[in-house]
């Protein structure tokens, strides 16, 4: 048991955003599962558990949502069924690896959170503005990370549409077709028993597409999320006493190089832009993409 807690601590200490998102979902699922079993044994009923779940599931009724504003965040870390969380976490792992490799941890977290928020907004708007859904809005609630996961999936397919997965029994398939299949599946389910969940999926898919398109234009939609995250990180970070030293040394700067993690030079950016015009965005290396994004963030 000690080794399990050590593994959890190490996962957060290593700052792998993909592993952390998956781990948070799994921890919430396990806690709810144990809680349900304990309450069922002790009360011989699921009523208490259902009441608890209502306070972390997102309601479609705006008047109820106003009394539980936190649910617009808690719902997309919450799962009740085993196959629901397995399916979502597998997709998050496969497509999240692409986002993390090419765009980094912060972009992955931004996509996950924005996808969940967009899914929640779609859920509330459709259930309260479209007559077909309005009769269900009073009691409808939603849980699950599907909107967030589909945001990551569509974002990966938008960034690298010809990236290929080898699917069991099928073989190599480009991820743009996999993402399109999930979107069509959600559209077809918008009139089924899980209509609210499928509407949320579409909100996540839309934000995933918009996020990458805006990022390629130099605008990071996740910047407000980064700012909030940095604020809380700096708030709890221990302060190190400042030590001032003075050195006299000559500095040589080359317009053709940039320090690791620093701002790329204008010459580098021009070379990268020329490469995009000749061969397209997908021809860039991971390092070139990161330099382009750093430069675009500086301009904002």
Automatic annotation (TrEMBL):
Keywords recorded for this protein, A-Z:
Hydrolase, Membrane, Protease, Transmembrane, Transmembrane helix
Compartments it resides in: Membrane
**Which top EC class applies here?**
hydrolase
Q: Where is the DUF6576 domain?
A: 265-298
Q: What are the protein's GO molecular function terms?
A: serine-type endopeptidase activity
* Classification via Gene3D superfamilies: Rhomboid-like
- A Pfam entry, by short name: Rhomboid
The EC number on file is 3.4.21.105
Q: Which GO terms describe its biological process?
A: proteolysis
Domain Peptidase S54 rhomboid: from-to ranges: 68-212
Q: How does it sit in the membrane?
A: Multi-pass membrane protein
Q: Name one GO cellular component term.
A: membrane
Span-the-membrane segments of this chain are 21-39, 82-99, 111-130, 136-160, 167-189
Give the primary localization class.
Answer: membrane
Q: State the family it belongs to.
A: Belongs to the peptidase S54 family.
What PANTHER family is this protein classified in? PRESENILIN-ASSOCIATED RHOMBOID-LIKE PROTEIN, MITOCHONDRIAL (PTHR43731:SF14), RHOMBOID PROTEASE (PTHR43731)
* Stated name of the protein: Rhomboid protease
